[in-house]
Design a protein that fits this description.
Elements: E1 9-13, H1 20-33, E2 40-44, H2 50-57, E3 63-66, H3 83-89, E4 93-96, H4 99-105, H5 109-121, E5 125-130, H6 134-138, H7 142-154, E6 166-169, H8 183-201, H9 203-208, E7 210-213, H10 222-226, E8 233-236, H11 244-249
Parallel strand pairs: 1-2, 1-8, 2-3, 3-4, 4-5, 5-6, 6-7
């Protein structure tokens, strides 16, 4: 049951999928269903599709985001993209520190922290991802991992700096595996993350920060996940590429 202080946010992460034509089609589908959404909606699209999806979403309430950024404004960083370039292309949000970026491309809490600074300075809403692997969970290290990632990622920023920040809890063992954290597991982790935010910047900051769940979210499990008091939305991978995302956008809870 999401707090009235935190409007639910449903984010589609398209990852490295879709041609521009397919992106336009999916963008139109999402835009067409946004009126029936139960919260705020955003799509984080491949760099190649940002410009065309921006046109599709123009005049709608769906926010456009990217999946990564660099911390420098410009320079000799072949293959990277800056926050200024993303904003110029029409982006309003950016995912930072996704578990796939951490695992496959060596991103660290330090790089997440630097990217967060760039996103905030550039006026983008950052979605900062945290989460443990299966090995870490089985070794009873979940809380230590989350504490380290949150402290390292948010280090050096005042509450006022972080007013736009969104946190996404992604249990790595649930991403793309078909395994989903139970509502109880998700709530437990989200409550712990919120307690860490309170520890860093106090009750007001903690109570006002949205924490999304990411990890095999589907049309079938979104309602039960969103019924949890500290789950403020979802970061959706595979299901965001299908019509099922419309049902996720229109989640229903018992509250």
């Amino acid at each position: 049951m999401t707090s009235p202080l935190r409007r639910p946010l449903l984010v589609g992460n398209w990852k490295m999928n879709l041609t521009m034509v397919q992106s336009i089609e999916l963008g139109k589908l999402v835009a067409g269903g946004a009126g029936a959404a139960s919260g705020e909606v955003a799509v984080c699209v491949p760099f190649t599709a940002i410009a065309v999806v921006r046109e599709v979403l123009r005049g709608t309430n769906v926010r456009l985001g990217a999946q990564n950024c660099h911390w420098e404004v410009s320079g000799a960083y072949t293959g990277e993209i800056s926050v200024d370039q993303l904003r110029d292309a029409g982006c309003q949000m950016v995912i930072i520190g996704h578990s796939e970026r951490r695992k496959l491309f060596g991103e660290t809490d330090e790089s997440v922290n630097r990217k967060l600074g760039a996103a905030l300075k550039g006026g983008l809403t950052p979605i900062v991802c945290v989460g443990e692997t299966l090995e870490e969970r089985e070794a009873q290290k979940t809380w230590r991992v989350l504490e380290t990632q949150i402290e390292g990622g948010l280090k050096g920023f005042a509450p006022a700096d972080l007013s736009k920040v969104v946190i996404a809890y992604e249990p790595v063992w649930a991403i793309g595996t078909g395994k989903t954290a139970s509502p109880a597991q998700a709530q437990e982790a989200h409550l712990f993350i919120r307690s860490q935010l309170k520890k860093i910047h106090g009750e007001s900051f903690s109570a006002g920060t949205r924490i999304l769940y990411g990890g095999s979210v589907t049309a079938e499990n979104v309602d039960s996940l969103m019924d949890s008091a500290d789950v403020d939305g979802a970061l959706v991978g595979g299901a965001s590429l299908k019509k099922d995302f419309l049902r996720i956008m229109g989640f229903q809870t018992a509250r």
